[in-house]
Hints:
single chain, mainly alpha, 2 domains, 8 helices
Amino acid sequence: MITVDxxxxxxxxVTDHPALARDLDRLGLDYCCGGxxxxxxxxxxxGLDLGAVxxxxxxxxxxxxxxxxxSMGPADLVDHIEATHHAYLHEELPRIEALLEKVEGVHxxxxxxxxxxxxxxxxxxxxxxxxxxxxxxxxxxxxxxxxGASEDGPADGSGDAVDxxxxxxxxxxxxxxxxxAGELLxxxxxxxxxxxxxxxxxxxxxxxxAALEQLEADTHLHVHKENNVLFPxxxxxxxxxxxxxx
Length: 246
């Protein structure tokens, strides 16, 4: 039987057992931006029974499906993130925006909290749209170039095709963007009372909260894959290549 190590970091737990991401979200344990904390420390901060949490997580890990992304190299992982999480956001953000406008128009008078939900979502979308563009147009092509240069070497043998140092700055920007997105998602969770619709909610209202909860779950996993898997692997490869260059 699988037993989740309470001293393991939250990020490592999700990388080893991706099916646990939803359980950690449900428990309010931040495994993406806060992924370096141990499970024990995170449970202590939240006032959760560590033994009970370990039991629940171990059960899910035992029966959860396996996924390929934890073992992918940087270039394949970049392709996976674009095809999975970027594609999801490009499709879902406009849909959620339209749904939110509809629900606020019908229910906004009885539920003034929807105005704050709408403003927070708009800010999140304004953060995510340029973030995706920077990854797709700048950082991800540089990562692919780095991997290609380190694996194959440049055609003329004169040096690497990409200056390793140019990766540091965009990664720092992405990390800051992730932190801000995490703050806004946490704010959305508070404003929606954990995405629990009110008793008088219609089908569209319920669909909105379900979509926002799914947006949170997908973005948390997206950020985890970058913060705790992709970026460390890229920076490690960059450091090793720099040593060889010297």
